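Please, structure for the following, as tokens.
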Amino acid sequence: ISFDADNNCYVTTITDIYANSELTVSYGDPTNPTPLFAKYGFLPTDCSTIFCKAIHLEQQIKNLGYEYNELLFNTETGEIFPKVWDVFLLAVLQEYDEGLASQFIMACQNGDEVTKADFHNNYFPYVLASLNVHVLSILDDVDQLTSNVLSYDLDLHPRVPVIAAHNNLVRGTFFMTASVLESMSKRCLIGLKE
């Protein structure tokens, strides 16, 4: 990008661009609106997913070689993406047995879906409980943060409505995810009684 003496902007590209083509700039990962909001001060209204907010499991995410944009909840259904389950399972295994945790990491890295499924089946109730605690904790945090932000003077803090909208998106998504987890817990309990 360069400017001439008259402040005309010139952009040089590495590929041909046809006349009247639209040029766009990526502000970041559209699967996670939180960094976009934090850095640029706007909230995309069309995001279909958000990050599961499992920052406390950063080491497990790294151990599995996963990226944050793979650890998502669906904003319309609360669906939990598969790699979220993997991260929480690894955390459970590391608390229980480092040897099993290492086996699970290898299965993930090698794409061994059969071994991964065995681990998930054997430890599902523990992972479900751990993920549920996390989701409910985030819901509590969001409620507290929203309560705090709504007490601010809009004249002094004009971004309050955008902050509240972000918190409502997170709350709505995590509330649906909590419902998904509750339904799974009920099915798990029924299965245990049979």
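Helices lie at 33-40, 58-64, 82-96, 98-110, 113-149, 160-193. DSSP finds six helices and four strands in the chain.
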